[in-house]
Amino acid sequence: xxxxTHELSIGYKRKGNPISVAAGINLxxxxxxxxxxxxxxxxGKSTLIRTLxxxxxxxxGSVMLEERDIREWDSPxxxxxxxxxxxxxxxxxxxxxxxxxxxxxxxxTNWLGTLSKEDNDLVxxxxxxxxxxxxxxxxxxxxxDGERQKAMFARALAQETPLILLDEPTAHLDILSRIxxxxxxxxxxxxxxxxVLFSTHDLELALQMSDQVWLFDGRGALLTGAPEDLVLKxxxxxxxxxxxxxxxxxxxxxxxxxxxxxxxxxxxxxxxxSEYFWTRKALIRTGYTIAGREGADCSVxxxxxxxxxxxxxxxxDTVQTAGDIAGMLACLEAPG
Length: 336
Hints:
Layout: E1 3-14, E2 17-25, E3 28-29, E4 34-38, H1 45-52, E5 60-65, E6 68-69, H2 75-79, E7 82-85, H3 97-102, H4 117-129, H5 145-158, E8 163-166, H6 175-192, E9 195-199, H7 203-209, E10 212-216, E11 222-225, H8 227-232, H9 235-239, E12 247-249, E13 254-256, E14 266-270, H10 273-285, E15 289-290, E16 298-305, E17 308-315, E18 318-322, H11 325-333
Helix pairs in contact: 4-5
């Protein structure tokens, strides 16, 4: 199963005139891979998802499914090839989760919509894979945002298609729910050899968990590649940075804010492990610079004391001891 584009331009119509938001898109969605679609607001992520799904007409170029233009597929046949999860309200909020997921079997049932034993088994299995078996009988209007997203994904699984497209499935979810949903997407792509594409604003999670990234560069082009390659080539930094305000740190893979101004003293920090890592982050966050022994105004040493740790703050020929990072910062801020 192959989904490709050829010199695709995407956009919308304004007063009958086509407006392109991205052009010259040539790509292929790989089977057995999780692909993340990234870009700033208004870059065209949702527009691309809808165009690939055949819901929007291209401004120019084509979308090809199995070497056949997506617009030539009739709805029943396309529904057996591609499942789409969009950001939209449920049309019937009185459905139970089971009934919602069962709608994924519509392309395979008779005109009465009768489910066979195999269909029902597949619905239950899809609910289990999505991690919500306890919600099977609950009405969808009683679900949280995260539960609703998982239910919609379960419906896509029940549809049994080689392609799954999702438009910002992690929107409005807490961090743990976002991680869990992306983990399920990746597992589905890898274990069932499906092509899974999802758009997201979760840059760090996308870089950590996706196999491939499609990146709208902010200039109307779509870049593709392994997450690490896009980082090392500077594409991520260029898009996710605001000079003097915040930026993408290639060394850590994080969006970082600039240090407070004016900067405070230079600190020589010694220690190791997680305590060193988070102490360093706390010092930088509060405006200190990390320096070598010779160039430092004061020092902070981290020592293990049994199962706990202590922070030794040396400044102006005095030594103070703190039991945690907050206490260490208080020692540095104290006069004298």
